[in-house]
Structure formats: structure tokens, C-alpha cells
Write a structure and sequence with these properties.
This protein is α/β, with parallel strands linked by helices. The strands form 7 sheets. Strands 10-9-11-12-6-13-14-15-16 form a 9-stranded mixed sheet, with helices on both faces. A 4-stranded mixed sheet has the order 17-18-20-19. A hairpin with a 2-residue loop joins strand 17 and strand 18. It is globular. Bound molecules: thymidine-5'-diphosphate and magnesium ion. The site of magnesium ion (MG) has 4 residues, from helix 2. Thymidine-5'-diphosphate binds next to helix 2 and helix 3.
């Protein structure tokens, strides 16, 4: 007989224990354990695994395995195709993650329009869309507004994965969309939909279906307040491709960022704008995040490199005396620890005491900057705010900061500078570059100031 057991599972990282714990020993989060019931069915020697999911076991020598050219289905949404490395690979399992309301359902729905037009084996690709979160009526309403009503798009409101397998048998789709993984469940697991065990098991089942039947699968997952993909990190390990949809849902811009890709690189980003008619691609995004009027104390502009794209961002800093025992440090759009590190460098190397000052910094545009080339711009924006002196007009600032206060080289300086020149910048504060790079950048019509220390950068950047 099936034996009913219970276990406590951390909903953040998937750590399991027999009894309740207040703090997870694995991920150090508090209050994340919930009780999950498991039914242990003993497998007798005669019982066979379900033929739905079992595959033929093969052992081959690596030399004997023949590589077939991976078929990629291009979505014809250029920004998405670039992030995926040229389209969805047939039979792959991708996870599209993002905050609720960011536009994940809208993106996949718009994608189905082009996918359904692709001909494969003389037939249009069939897409099965599992609307576990909304009713098919709601999806239809949105599809109508977005003018996405292809012939070979099937909707189902089935949320039980075991039943979904039956529907796959009937419809035989080439593409499967699960919206969302937190709302589907597997009947063999007793805990509720959205729990770690359910998410893990459902993804497992979907992965095996994808591989065995060559169904290209996209699962949608919500992210938690902490910014992790809700539920276990195991989800990230299991899938072939993880794409994050980021941005501020109250603003228009969205960035699609690949954080894992078994079939391509992970450096590319895609940029979209949410309009009334759905997501619109931004093919030349360098200037999109810049809503810059004239220099003001506390503002600095940096050129970052995202994949093959150069994006310009404005960093704003506000420094003022504090009313608290511990001064406040707030970072929006960039890493909090990086802000602390830059403040420490300023205090030590410039001798500016910020221990009685609150420091707020914000990246304008609602998009997070991830690469470290913004350190110098961040430091200069803080110093500019403290001294109440603006940074000189039309100046772009590029450079990473080392703990010794040195300004470090960042990749692709020449590309960042030429993009800044195209957008009308006149001056650039950059790290010291080699002879080779020097010969490349001397043709760019910018006044270039090369600095090796923060103190030199201050002289070069602040007006007066
Ligand atoms: P949605 O795709 O439902 O988000 P998710 O699936 O990530 O939860 O998108 C939700 C938001 O997008 C919603 O607040 C309204 C906005 N939106 C538009 O502005 N224009 C549109 O054409 C669509 C479809 C949505
Ligand atoms: Mg949705």
C-alpha cells in the first residue's frame, strides 16, 4: 500500500528536511519551509515504468553518435531570435521567467503567430497553449486585440500534467507552451500547485515529453520578490534555456536576457517596448534609456555593452545628510554591494567622508545594469552630488573601479566610444588603454581623457 509521508521543503531553494526549520541551512532564507505530503509507492519487480515517459535505453560510444544538424524554428521576432541564438531549437525546453505582469504571456502569444506560419514536413507547425492561469476566453480576447489568431494554435485550460499528456497524444503539437509552471500540477504529488515538489515534478515530466517526442516546449515561470525564479533553483538546472524578461512593469521598456543557453551564447539581450498593440521590438536601442536634458549635479552617463549592443544609461545620485544612526544606501537598477564598494573606495581614496550621508542612486529607465563598466560613472555621480557640481556637458564615462582606486580597462572601448559619438557626445572619460586600442580610438572625433585613478577622473569630469 502507498505510504503517506510528509517532508518540509524550502520554497526558495528546494532543501528538504523531516521537520520544520525556521531558517534554511542551504540558502539562509527565513520562513520558507512548507510541509509537503509525499506518497511513496513501492515499485515491485514486475511493475514497469509508465510507457508514456520511458524511452529506449541505449549505450553508444561517443565516436559512433551521429550529430544531426539541430533544426531551429525562427520566431521572426528579431530581438527574441538573437537572444535564443537564432530561434528555438527543436525539442528544447526553455523557461521564460519574469515578474507577474511584465508581459510574458503577451510575448509568447505574439511568438505563436510566426511559429504557426512555419512549415515543417509540408504542414504548418501546431502549437498547444496550456492556459493554466487565464481562461482560454481571456487568452482569445488578448489574441484578438493583438491580431494573433493562427489556424494551428490550440488552447486548453487543462492544469493537470497527466491529462495534458493525453491531449498531446490527440493533437500532436510541435510546440508546447505552459503558462505558467506555477499553476500546473501532477496528480502523483500531494502538495499544491506552485510548491517546489510540484514545479520540479511537472518540469521533469515536460522535459521528458519534450525530448522523447521532439516537442519544442516553452514554460513560463514567475519570479519571487527576491528576484529568483519562484520555487526551486533546480528548475534552472533542468531546462535547456533560461530567458529572463526584465524591466519595470510601470514603464514601457523590457529587456529579454538569456541567462542559460545549451545551444548558444548567453551574452545577447533583446529590447522591447510595451505598447497598446503589444510588445514592439526596438532594433536600435542605444539611446532608448536616455531621457537626458542638461547636466545637473549627481547625473552621469555610461555606455554599457549588452551582448552585441551598446546601451547608454543615465545614473543619478542624491547624497544628503542623514537623520538615522546608520546612513541609508539605496541602489535601484544596479547592485547594492557594488554601491557599497564604490562608496568605500571614494571614502578611502578621495578622503570624502560619507558616514553621515544618505546615498540614493538610480539608473534612469527602469532597466538593471549588470556589467561593471558603470563603476566610474557611479563614483563620479556621487561625488558630483556631494560637491553640487555637474559633470561637464556631453561627457560619457566608462570604467571599472578596483579596490585600490584604480580605473580598470573594460572591453570594447572603441565600440562604446563610437556609439557615444554617433549619439552626439563630445567628451569621454575612459581608463588608460593600450597602444593598439589607442590607434583604433584616435579616429573617433571625441575629446578623450584617459585616467588611471578616480582622483584624475574627478578633475577631468567635474565642471569648474
Ligand atoms: P502579461 O503578458 O499578461 O504579463 P505576464 O504574463 O508576464 O504576467 O502582460 C500584462 C501587462 O501588459 C498588462 O498589465 C497590460 C500590458 N499590456 C499592454 O500594455 N499592451 C498589450 O497589448 C498587452 C497584451 C498587455
Ligand atoms: Mg501571464
Amino acid at each position: 500500500m502507498a505510504k503517506v509521508k510528509s517532508k518540509w521543503v524550502c520554497q526558495n531553494c528546494g532543501y528538504e528536511t523531516a521537520s520544520y526549520l525556521g531558517r534554511c541551512p542551504e540558502c539562509a532564507q527565513f520562513g520558507t519551509f512548507i510541509e509537503e505530503i509525499t506518497t511513496n509507492v513501492k515499485i515491485s519487480e514486475n511493475s514497469k515504468p509508465s510507457n508514456l515517459l520511458s524511452g529506449e535505453t541505449k549505450i553508444s560510444k561517443i565516436k559512433d553518435i551521429e550529430l544531426d544538424e539541430k533544426i531551429r524554428f525562427k520566431t521572426n521576432i528579431e530581438e527574441l531570435d538573437r537572444v535564443l541564438g537564432g530561434g528555438f531549437v527543436q525539442g528544447s525546453l526553455s523557461l521564460l521567467a519574469g515578474d507577474p505582469g511584465i508581459g510574458k504571456s503577451t510575448l509568447v502569444l505574439q511568438t505563436t503567430k510566426n511559429i504557426c506560419e512555419i512549415e515543417y514536413n509540408n504542414e504548418n507547425l501546431k502549437v498547444l497553449y496550456i492556459c493554466a492561469e487565464e481562461s482560454p476566453h481571456q487568452v482569445k480576447l488578448r489574441a484578438k486585440r493583438l491580431e494573433v489568431e493562427p489556424d494551428s494554435l490550440y488552447l486548453t485550460n487543462q492544469t493537470c500534467i497527466d491529462e495534458v499528456i493525453n491531449q498531446i497524444d490527440i493533437i500532436k503539437p510541435d510546440f508546447l507552451i505552459v503558462d505558467s509552471i506555477q499553476s500546473v500540477f501532477c496528480s502523483s504529488i500531494a502538495s499544491g500547485a506552485g510548491s517546489v515538489s510540484q514545479i520540479r515534478e511537472c518540469t521533469n515530466v515536460l522535459m521528458r515529453i519534450a525530448k522523447q517526442r521532439n516537442i519544442t516546449t516553452v514554460i513560463i515561470g514567475h519570479v519571487t520578490k527576491e528576484g529568483n525564479i519562484a520555487g526551486p533553483k533546480v528548475l534552472e538546472h533542468m531546462v535547456d534555456c533560461v530567458i529572463n524578461f526584465e524591466g519595470d512593469k510601470y514603464k514601457q521598456f523590457r529587456i529579454l536576457r538569456c541567462i542559460k543557453n545549451r545551444f548558444g551564447t548567453i551574452s545577447e539581450v533583446g529590447v522591447f517596448k510595451m505598447e497598446d498593440e503589444g510588445l514592439v521590438e526596438i532594433n536600435t536601442p542605444s539611446q532608448m534609456f536616455l531621457d537626458f536634458k542638461e547636466p545637473a549635479p549627481g547625473s552621469a552617463i555610461v555606455a554599457t555593452l549588452e551582448g552585441s549592443r551598446i546601451l547608454l544609461h543615465e545614473i543619478q545620485a542624491l547624497v544628503g545628510s542623514t537623520n538615522y544612526a546608520n546612513p541609508r544606501r539605496v541602489a535601484v537598477g544596479l547592485e547594492y554591494n557594488r554601491l557599497l564598494q564604490v562608496i568605500a573606495i571614494i571614502e578611502k581614496k578621495i578622503g570624502l567622508n560619507l558616514s553621515k550621508q544618505d546615498v540614493y542612486v538610480n539608473v534612469v529607465g527602469g532597466i538593471d545594469i549588470i556589467e561593471p563598466s558603470y563603476d566610474l560613472a557611479l563614483a563620479l555621480s556621487i561625488i558630483s552630488s556631494v560637491r553640487d557640481i555637474p559633470i561637464t556637458q556631453d561627457t560619457i564615462i566608462i570604467g571599472e573601479l578596483g579596490l585600490l582606486g584604480e580605473v580598470r580597462y573594460v572591453d570594447n572601448i572603441e565600440r562604446r566610444l563610437s556609439e557615444a559619438y554617433k549619439l552626439g557626445f563630445k567628451r569621454a572619460i575612459i581608463p588608460q588603454v593600450s597602444e593598439k586600442i589607442n590607434s583604433k580610438i584616435k579616429n573617433i572625433d571625441l575629446e578623450i581623457v584617459q585616467v588611471s585613478k578616480v582622483s584624475q577622473a574627478i578633475k577631468g569630469a567635474l565642471q569648474g
